[in-house]
Fold this sequence. Notes:
Elements: H1 2-15, E1 36-47, E2 50-60, E3 63-68, E4 77-81, E5 86-89, E6 91-96, H2 143-152, E7 154-159, E8 166-169, E9 171-174, H3 181-184, E10 185-187, E11 192-195, H4 210-229, H5 237-245, E12 250-253, H6 257-269, E13 275-277, H7 286-291, E14 296-299, E15 305-306, H8 311-314, H9 319-327, H10 331-337, E16 342-345, H11 355-364, H12 369-376, H13 378-383, E17 401-404, E18 415-419, E19 437-443, E20 446-455, E21 458-465, E22 468-470, E23 472-477, E24 480-486, E25 495-501, E26 508-514, E27 520-527, H14 530-534, E28 570-578, E29 585-594, E30 597-602, E31 611-614, E32 619-622, E33 624-629, H15 658-665, E34 668-673, E35 681-684, E36 686-689, H16 696-699, E37 707-711, H17 733-755, H18 764-773, E38 778-783, H19 786-798, E39 805-808, H20 816-822, E40 825-828, H21 846-852, E41 857-859, H22 870-879, H23 885-890, H24 894-899, E42 917-920, E43 931-936, E44 939-943, H25 944-970, E45 975-976
Parallel strand pairs: 1-4, 1-5, 6-7, 11-12, 12-13, 13-14, 14-16, 15-45, 28-31, 28-32, 33-34, 37-38, 38-39, 39-40, 40-41
Antiparallel strand pairs: 1-2, 2-3, 5-17, 7-9, 8-11, 9-10, 17-18, 19-20, 19-27, 20-21, 21-22, 23-24, 24-25, 25-26, 26-27, 28-29, 29-30, 32-42, 34-36, 35-37, 42-43, 43-44
Amino acid sequence: MKKLFLSLAVIFMGFNFYAQEYFPKNDGVKTSNSNYTVFTNAVIHTSPGTEITNGTLIIQKGKIQQVGTGLSIPKNSIVIDLQGKHIYASFIDPFTSFGIKKPKRQGGSFRSNPQYDASREGYYWNDHIRPETNSLDDFTYDKKKADEFIKAGFGTLNTHMPDGIMRGTGLLVALNNDGTKGDRLLSDASSQLLSFSKSNKSKQMYPTSLMGSMALLRQVYLDAKWYTTNDTDYKDLSIEALNKNKNLPQIFEAGSRINGFRADKVGDEFNIQYIIVGGGDEYARINKVKATNAKYIIPLDFPEAYDVSDPYMANLVSLGDMRHWNQAPTNPSILAKNGVQFSLTTHKLKKIADLNARIEKAIKHGLDKKTALEALTTVPAQILGKSDVLGTLKKGAYANFLITSQELFSKDNIIYENWVQGHKNIVNDMNTKDINGAYELTLAGKTYDVSISGKPAKPKAEVKLGETKLGSKMTYTNDWVFLTFTDADTTKTQYTRIVTAINKNPKFWSGKAILPNGSETTFTAKQKPKNAAKKDGKKSEDKKETPKVLPVTYPNIAYGNSKLPKSENILFKNATVWTNEVDGILTETDVLIKNGKIAGIGKNLNAGNARIVDATGKHLTSGIIDEHSHIAAAAINEAGHNSTAEVTIEDVVSPDDINMYRNLAGGVTSIQILHGSANPIGGRSAILKLKWGESAENLIFNNSPKFIKFALGENVKQSNWGDAERIRFPQTRMGVEQLYVDYFTRAKRYEKLKNSGKPYRKDIEMETLVEILNGKRFISCHSYVQSEINMLMKVAEKFNFRINTFTHILEGYKVADKMAKHGVAGSTFSDWWAYKYEVNDAIPYNATIMHNQGVLVAINSDDGEMSRRLNQEAAKSVKYGGISEEEAWKFVTLNPAKMLHIDDRVGSIKVGKDADVVLWTDHPLSIYAKAEKTLIDGATYFDLEKDKAMRKSIVDERNELSTMLLKAKNSGLKTQPPKKKEKQHFHCDTVEHIH
């Protein structure tokens, strides 16, 4: 009933604003205010960059009737002379939760009482998909909060329920404190809101990860299309709402630059152009931001300066965080200069009142004032599809406007009034005389310097006697000034009090003073000329120092590149070359790198225009490949279901992970990021080249082979998850086998229906399993115990496919003959054992025994630290089992390349292969060997000498930034204490939770 009333109110407002004559009136005579309010002689800024001098603005019934010059003033008009003042359209914030309380998270963690199924019937199968949510159901107009927005210059807010992945529709609300609910509501379906975060209204487990959220969004869009085009035997109110909302502006709260890219990726797949709520760090990859073609909504929560006065505590602050403090205020200007259209928002600001200071800071860092105004008026109006009635001052638009003393964003500007739907809100009384300035105050034979600044209604005074600053307190009410200040003698607590009325000439005061001894006298104060005030050492606004902003690197953290490495032609001379081919190890040999490929191998090669690197006494190898890694990812496990084949690590590649650089320093050039082992059927893999500084998609192998992670053992049956986790199937090793059989049986049925030509619901999970059945996707399976290893090979053979790789495989030595017969590879640890019960039988001879039985063997890390020394891990197989050095080296190069089906491109030094090579200072299996140069596609991504120079550069940059931070603190800016951000190190069993 409430929604019906409000909707009808909005409809009738379109015909006659505030006209509700059809309502009965029993408390008096009906009246209707048809008066006009006319504002004359103002500078009217009808839109950013367009102004009318000595203009007239005529409003009636909450809307603008006319705007221009030389207008006829209607008879029944209230005329307000605004000589010397300015009028602007009121601001619009397109992303708030004004008047709506976010639900509290249900008690306990997701894992303390896990819920795997939806709690609602008649809606989508996942509780975190809530497009049917109408924010109006939870909206209460908050007058106190509205006043904060009004004082900051806002007239209209887009608000929503900030809860869930699909959050439902937003409300467009006018901040009309005098109107009714129906008056204020401009739209009860202004936009559809989305995020990657789950709803607090449900404890449903899925999704537990960012990649799960992305997969869920994809499946929802597919299901929405299916629901529309096919007769279904069920009713889904969520899907119906999603389809109904599809033409609304789609606002996606990403919260960071990289999550904005992830959101845009999903949107592009379904021809949806999201409006992205950014994170304020877009400046660091502006070209990629521009490539999204999205409009952005940008917060202004610039970080406060870190208090680095304690040098030991200062070490807790990373260089990346220091840089962000320095660079973040440039974000709006960089967006503007690169043609990215954006709106500004108060989202994430601790106080709405901080908005103006943040905009001033952005302007100081290069943001054009016109662009700032557009970002608060015309752009949010465009985003919300309301340019006809909001954001500009024109006939028919809502009478939402500001009256200011000067141009917006100028230093001493004052917002006097904020009119919303024709209703006046006084922010600062425009009749209050402006007394700001520098004065010479004469009292009892002494001359004081008094400086007054701040808002007219709440000015601040600074009193000096000579060079001595005196304590002071001032109030200014109804044109009366009351000023109290201390004595210059700090050993005495004495006060002088003065009081005066400000007359027509606020530049000259005279009045009564009460001296510390209680006697009364008179004083005079005369305002100094403005030029004289500037001579006191204060620079004019135009001559303020431009902030120094340090350059962005790729990535924008310590050890980032000033520019991305490029392929170059290089000739390595006189190296010991480990070819991993039939030629074996070649001494005093040259290798030519050209156009990103290995172009020549031999002696006395012609360099041509190639740069020559003297490799005498050094070893050149192909780059190390880590078959099992969990670095460079924002998530590893999607633990919400027992099968999550729909998720992919490629969605959550994290290109700023410092472990990539550290791996390059250890000679690693390629990795497979595997999903974790939280479920029997995990997510899809990502195979990367560690091109430090590149974007996430540019790290992924071109035409990358398709892999997926399966898992066996304790983790998947949740035996080590705690007593609460006794709900999800399977809970036994027998159940794990039946799960595989069930899913592959369902996948075969799915494929049969798909190939029949009949309508079918596209299921991303089933599509992935069908790829496995058809040999188009390969399985890397987490495994320990021989019985389960045998089981999975039999399941695969039953469905006529083969397991590609058993990873960990610490009991592989027990079933090596069966593995060789099945054709499965083994990627193992060198010497890990006894870290949990199911690895009690692990031995360091495992790799050798499997190799000797004809199994393709690799040594992997499964660890962000161990991956930096895989050359040493490979050497252990020489010790344990007597593997030849050459074969041991293949355990971390050619063999993992074969496992990953990329050995036609990498894994050995062969003409025509990618130039992914490492120059070692010593024998590569030696503990003394260092990677001197690590190349990928012929570009140098690690160089030992450059690394030394970067370390010095990092120290210098930290010192420079620390000086800036100390200067900010000493100038009185707010600071935050240093705090260390602990980076989560992912392993197979890491289960992260999104909220």
